[in-house]
Design the sequence.
């Protein structure tokens, strides 16, 4: 059950609130509502996403946002958060039915009706009536409705709110980056369990006047709609989303991406491909334990992409036991590489095939390779002491191996920019620049590495 429902403006100031229960403590209930906005700002400053439900000092906060308003529910006990969030969305829908437009002004003009609705819709914190037809039978008072202005589409007026008139550049250029992030999950048997490609087309425009740009991709749906045959590989994009400057009607008709761009940087479009992705960087990790006193990690990295491409800043993170100590590393050498300790506590070893860093606070070591050419493979050996004796079952419970990399001038999906045309009434010539980048996604992980004596496992990244 909810203890309090409130509607706040964008600054967190309370417009209206209704307290259903007196279980929020001895303090004034408005103090808990005023604490909502500072808590959100604190999470945003720390770089954390603000969840729809969170707790602070024993109080549960559940909220949604509509236009420039926040709808907030508070509770001090164990509450059904999902049901409460659904109730808040239903509350918004009913207010829109009554007032046509739910804004701060409509809240101030109709607070009497809102209080009546809150009393009918919820009793002692429990949702009761959420059907607008039934509420109309109980609450017949006329409301003050905001006049909603109906604006014609921009295609009819020619208005371009995202770009100013009179922009001038001495050199007209447009830069286009196609960035693809690969998410990959590999199980302990070395099989790809899940893979997807998340792509974004970024643009940076330094163009004079009001130019119109037309972008053509090797889109499979475009070739099918026009009856043309693709010369090379055609891709089938999913979940395509465009910047609001793109003319969606034209894209739906003939798959042409036509738009008047904003000035400067912006994301033109995003897309997703759920096809099976061939691992670009293959990692094999083998663990060998010696009488419970030390453990040896043998790690191999193989570049499974074309030889003319190179992966930059490859990072392979391998987790180790939390009580491991005295690290020693070697990379394709017969001697143990010297270990250095700095004041910040990070232990590292410099080798010909990159740098190995022991990071105790992360519970593992990072093998960094500045540049990995296609078709190449590197090996490294790490040894740790184990002061604590553990059984084999506990030793195998470790975090997954993760990999980071970036491959310029390469796309794993095969997407290509077929043309990028710039048309402006003054007739100037613009220089288009196109760049492709493939990198790891947020979820690029391998399950537990192979231990010697177990069935052989090939792990992939």
Sequence:
């Amino acid at each position: 059950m909810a203890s309090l429902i409130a509607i706040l403006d964008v600054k967190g100031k309370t417009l209206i609130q209704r307290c259903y229960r007196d279980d929020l403590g001895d303090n004034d209930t408005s103090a808990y509502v005023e604490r909502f906005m500072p808590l959100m700002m604190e999470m945003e400053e720390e770089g954390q996403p603000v969840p729809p439900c969170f707790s602070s000092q024993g109080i549960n906060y559940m909220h949604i946002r509509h236009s420039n308003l926040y709808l907030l529910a508070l509770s001090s006990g164990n509450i059904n958060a999902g049901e409460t969030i659904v109730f808040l969305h239903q509350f918004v829908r009913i207010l829109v039915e009554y007032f046509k437009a739910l804004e701060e002004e409509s809240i101030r003009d109709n607070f009497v009706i809102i209080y009546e609705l809150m009393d009918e819709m919820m009793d002692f914190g429990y949702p009761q009536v959420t059907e607008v037809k039934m509420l109309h039978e109980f609450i017949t008072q006329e409301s003050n409705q905001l006049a909603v202005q109906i604006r014609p589409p921009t295609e009819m007026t020619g208005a371009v709110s995202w770009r100013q008139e009179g922009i001038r550049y001495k050199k007209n250029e447009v830069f286009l980056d196609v960035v693809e992030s690969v998410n990959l999950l590999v199980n302990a048997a070395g099989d790809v369990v899940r893979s997807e490609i998340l792509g974004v087309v970024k643009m940076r425009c330094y163009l004079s006047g009001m130019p119109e740009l037309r972008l053509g991709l090797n889109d499979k749906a475009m070739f099918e709609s026009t009856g043309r045959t693709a010369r090379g590989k055609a891709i089938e994009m999913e979940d395509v989303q465009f910047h609001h400057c793109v003319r969606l009607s034209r894209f739906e008709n003939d798959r042409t991406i036509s738009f008047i761009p904003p000035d400067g940087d912006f994301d033109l479009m995003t897309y997703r491909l759920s096809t099976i992705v061939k691992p670009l960087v293959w990692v094999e990790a083998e663990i060998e334990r010696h009488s419970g006193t030390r453990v040896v990690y043998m790690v191999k990295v193989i570049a499974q992409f074309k030889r003319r491409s190179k992966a930059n800043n490859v990072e392979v993170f391998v987790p180790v036991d939390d009580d491991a100590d005295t690290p020693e590393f070697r990379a394709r050498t017969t001697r143990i590489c010297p270990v250095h300790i700095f004041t910040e506590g990070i232990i590292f070893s410099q080798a010909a095939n990159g740098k190995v860093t022991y990071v105790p606070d992360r519970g593992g070591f990072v093998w960094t390779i500045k540049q990995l050419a296609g078709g190449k493979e590197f090996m490294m050996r790490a040894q740790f002491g184990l002061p604590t004796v553990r059984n084999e079952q506990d030793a195998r419970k470790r975090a997954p191996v993760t990999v980071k990399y970036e491959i310029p001038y390469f796309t794993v999906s095969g997407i290509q920019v077929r043309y990028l045309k710039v048309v402006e009434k003054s007739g100037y010539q613009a220089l288009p620049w196109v760049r492709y980048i493939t990198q790891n996604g947020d979820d690029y992980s391998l399950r537990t590495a192979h231990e010697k004596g177990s069935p052989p496992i090939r792990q992939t990244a």
